[in-house]
Amino acid sequence: MTDGRLAVRAAVFLGAGAGFRVEELVLDPPGPGEVLVRMLASGVCHSDLHVLDGDWERPAPVAMGHEGAAIVEALGPGVGARAGDPAAGDLVVLAWTAPCGACRACARGEGFLCAEPRGSGHRRAATDVRLRRPDGMPVAVYSGIGTMATHQVVAAEAAIRVDPGLPAAEAALLGCAVTTGVGAVTRTAGMRPGETAVVIGLGGVGLSAVMGAALAGAARIVAIDRVPAKLALARALGATEVIHAGEGPATRAAVLALLPGGADHAVEAIGLAATAELALDLVRPGGTVTLVGMTPQGVRAGVDVYAFVERGIRLLGSNYGSATPAEVFPELARQVVAGRLPVGRLIQERITLDDLGQAFEALRRGDGARRVVTFDPTS
Ligand SMILES: NC(=O)c1ccc[n+]([C@@H]2O[C@H](COP(=O)([O-])OP(=O)(O)OC[C@H]3O[C@@H](n4cnc5c(N)ncnc54)[C@H](O)[C@@H]3O)[C@@H](O)[C@H]2O)c1
Ligand SMILES: [Zn+2]
Ligand SMILES: [Zn+2]
Known about the structure:
By secondary structure, the chain is of the alpha/beta class. It is built from 10 helices and 18 strands. It has helices spanning about 45-50, 105, 170-190, 205-215, 230-235, 250-260, 275-280, 305-310, 325-335, 355-365, and strands at about 5-15, 20-25, 35-45, 60-65, 70-75, 90-95, 130, 140, 150-155, 160, 195-200, 220-225, 240-245, 265-270, 285-290, 315, 345-350, 370-375. Strand 12 (about 220-225), helix 5 and strand 13 form a beta-alpha-beta unit. Helix 3 (about 170-190) packs across helix 4 and helix 3 (about 170-190) packs across helix 9. The longest helix has 21 residues, at about 170-190. The protein is globular and about 70 Å long. The relative contact order is 0.16. Nicotinamide-adenine-dinucleotide (NAD) binds near residues 203 and 293.
């Protein structure tokens, strides 16, 4: 297009029960404080599936995806003036929360809880949207980054520069799974060397929690999934023992046989009430349960209050690995480049936007760790 607008392709969620479709859209140039990025890679996270399945209330149409790596192509007015601003040509990991730096949560160092994130995610006013259908209808952008698209305009604060030596598909995974899973263990739970951990659910997030526990120096890491192939992968990433989850109380007994008295830590990375409840039974008195998996909105889990209190259990919710992306992405990227975080092992398959339907089906079955849409054949 000659007027500064760009023709792009994006996976667009059409509303609960209506699925998604890859559409040709029109992208406006970046406004003040924004940057135009060319997407290199986007992971497919179970949170995208929650959106697709209508588990969470989200606007539609919305350009999907929240786990991406990109190259900065153009800067909007005012970008570049501040230290840390992205520059054209930078490899960036996109953050699904870009903290404002000014609210009370940000002042506490809890950017992941920011009340007014930059770009304000998919709830941005229709009058302030850069992405449209050819007929002019605004298309919202999931979490302000909508990574399942060939290009996107995002808040400059959401584009975090990382080591350009990082392969793009791996960089993409830092944007959600790795930050979430590693951070749940190292930041939210604060695991210390020599402690024991149980991780329930071995998708991209749970396997990242296994990597995080290994990085933290855990003495024992027990990994649990219902899909046997995940168990082998968990071992390769640092699990010392694995359990094939069946039905009923067998999993609890199997964990307690391995770790008599219970683990120091249990991490739930599926998003089921039953496994959140199970996690409470797997820790020792005084142990810490960290919930990472997200259920459909409104789902409640039960707690045996007497036992919970008597045993002095700590129960934590972990949002985005308790990370402030601008600090944590570059640090994780350094760990990957140094060979301390084998993020590449999470990549099951590189796919295109047109393969997304099959990727979501595979995710439903628990088949494979991460599928990554790559937009550039060399990524
Ligand atoms: N807290 C956060 O900030 C945050 C960020 C990203 C994702 N999430 C959530 O984390 C969860 C995991 O995401 P993911 O992308 O890794 O998902 P995923 O679907 O790739 O992984 C889930 C794993 O759980 C296994 N599983 C399912 N039911 C099971 C059962 N009953 N027993 C044992 N294993 C079972 C599956 O086989 C699969 O390996 C999702 O709910 C997602 O929405 C949370
Ligand atoms: Zn995610
Ligand atoms: Zn803030």
